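does this look right to u?? zinc ion version
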Amino acid sequence: MKKLIKKALVFVLSAAVAAVSCAVVPATGAKAAEPIVVVIDPGHGGSNLGTDYLPIPEKVYTMVVAQHMKERLEQYQNVQVYLTHTEDVDMSLKERAEFAASVNADFLYSLHFNMSLSHILYGSEVWVPSSGQLYSQGYSAANEFLMQFEEMGLFNRGIKTRIGSSGKSDYYGIIRESAVRGIPALIVEHCHVDHSNDASYIQSSEKLKEFGVRDAEAVARYFGLVSKDGKTDYSGYAPLAVPVPENRVCNDTTAPYYVSANLLKYDQTGKYATVELTALDDESVIQHYAYSCDNGLTWSMLQPWTKGSPTMTVTVNMGYGRKDSLIFKAYNLYDASTESNVIRLN
Ligand SMILES: [Zn+2]
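got this back:
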């Protein structure tokens, strides 16, 4: 937002000049506004494949989506769009941030696709800078991306920070290197390539294009852009206002401190159990629960937790055959989990 501040200053100064000299003031209003500079960073490249869980590595997906995002954004007025690289080359995170600084970027968007070691996570998430105005700008823009992905049907895994081991800077290089240059940067993790829930989102070129278009729309909304044909006008749109935090916003490194399961009803067929769950965490929200009917040997797919609520009532389909126990796990925003008490069913 440096430019907006600059613009505001110029306005205040010219108003002051006008007040003093009130006679002949040269018209300056006709000059077109300085364009917003957007840098899109296709994650990985060259020998850095990114996630290579699938036969097609992540770097291919990020480049395709980045090209679509650029093409769509260029349909808007008053925006200058760059890619950190357009060829399949190695590029360090520092070089990417340096490039963004060299073009005087207002924002850098690093595009990625995710996978988890456990292969149980699904959905979209966005990583943002952890301090000051960069946090506010990052959070507000990240919110736009996640709203777009939710509209596509993806699970919203939230907006996150991650602090390096020193405790004094961001863990992720692209965010850290951009932050030292005063540029807000996001890591946009579109979906999980290793989960069946998300698989269909990367299975066709149309779907990948939709990610690029959605990414561009998020940026257009955040900056209040107007399309060249005048048909799309976000100039009156207000993105989420996020106060500048006083201290660094740290990620939650501990699991929920209390999880309990209270059996409300166990149906006579032995197939359905209705349970009231309670999960508490001081540092981040509860995001998921899962259950096991075989003493923790196997677990259900992660289920969404009711956002913002410490308790929820769930009905579990345990399949056929009487089970003798039921255990739950609750997961917080950062995927750390705690097991509940064991419910004995006989
Ligand atoms: Zn990646």
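The chain has two domains: 35-223, 258-344. idk if thats expected tbh
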